[in-house]
Fold these 3 entries.
Entry 1:
Amino acid sequence: MDQAQARTWLTTAVEEARAGLAEGGIPIGAALYGADGTLLGRGRNRRVQDDDPSTHAETAAFRNAGRQRSYRGTTMVTTLSPCWYCSGLVRQFGIQRVVIGEAVTFHGGHDWLAGHGVEIVLLDDPECVGMMRDFIRERPELWHEDIRE
């Protein structure tokens, strides 16, 4: 995948992460793009805001995309390496590519996804790293509650 396109798509996920942080939540955002580059859905981690532990950024973007006849050629863009729950969603529905803003603060299931044929584009984006480092420093109790480490 073209790095410039990946970075452009990442801006949508970053906007969602910033919105989540402004709401008092965990700053993780995601977006699902179609094979033709159409934005299908976007979302943010709303576990705190909705008191729902299953509302991760990737699941929110997926749900907001609505039912698709096929996920062939789709790309999930996320500010943070996907956890096992969200990695399972990608694998279950055959999402073919995951663009990841960063995996410095959390190394999720993206190696497992790559081992199952999912294309992984890891951007090591400094804005994403900084946003999560700041959040973890300022709200460690929320981070550890969500990530369970």
Entry 2:
Amino acid sequence: MAFMTLILMVSFVLGLVAVASNPSPYFAALGLVFSAGVGCGLLVGFGSSFLSLVLFLIYLGGMMVVFAYTAALAAEPYPESWGDRPVLLYVVGYLGLLILAGISFVVDWGWGGWMGGGECGEMSMVRGDFSGVALLYSWGGGLLVLGGWMLFLTLFVVLELARGSSWGALRVV
């Protein structure tokens, strides 16, 4: 389990480096979706499976809007990818800074311990995040519907703003 958590943490950091180092919005949105998925996997590893599911669904809705917005506004015929020279220099620079920060973290604070989410109660029959399911659907059901409706409305607003005079991303239809 510790090895899987380490792999997820490294993947999360690499996804964030992919977002920070890429000037093309297509690849940056892809890195952001990858980082969101790996971050939700980390939450599952630490014992918050329901929170991970809710965040992943919210991220999917938000990333759909972000990707539609970036695809509509960025009309580059040849976007720069991660293998191009300027982007590769950014990647190497960010990874070098992260390695230096990681070394100073280990030297100053030590490795420490990672606590999972299963330690919330000694004699508990239900995990701590499962009790949130009933509360979310009983008290927060209206807010879930409102949040989904707002994401749906935002998608249409972004597509209408990006359309402009030349029909933007909808010109092919």
Entry 3:
Amino acid sequence: MDPEQARHWLATALGEARTGLAEGGIPIGAALYGPDGDLLGRGRNRRVQDGDPSLHAETAAFRAAGRRRSYRGTTMVTTLSPCWYCAGLVRQFGISRVVIGEAETFPGAQGWLAAHGVEVTVLNDPACTALMREFIGTHPELWSEDIGDDA
């Protein structure tokens, strides 16, 4: 994955994350790009706003892309390493690549994706990391709920 292209696409997902935060939600954004580089769909975590526990950012971007015969060659771009739920979506539908803004605050299932043939690029983007660190520090209970940590 071309790093310049990946960072350009990450800007779309980061914009979604910031919109989600402004709406009172969890600041995670995603975008799905086609094999030709066209934006197919974008979305943000809307679990809080919609009261829907399944509406993660990757799920929202996937839904916005609409039904396709194949997702081979597509790239899911996300501000945060995908959780198991979203990693399953990537594998289930054969999304070829995942670009991750940051995996420092949440390592997610990136290793599992890579082990199962998905090309994974982690950008270690400081803006993504700062956004999540601030959110986690301000809303630890909501963050724990989002990642399924009931401890």
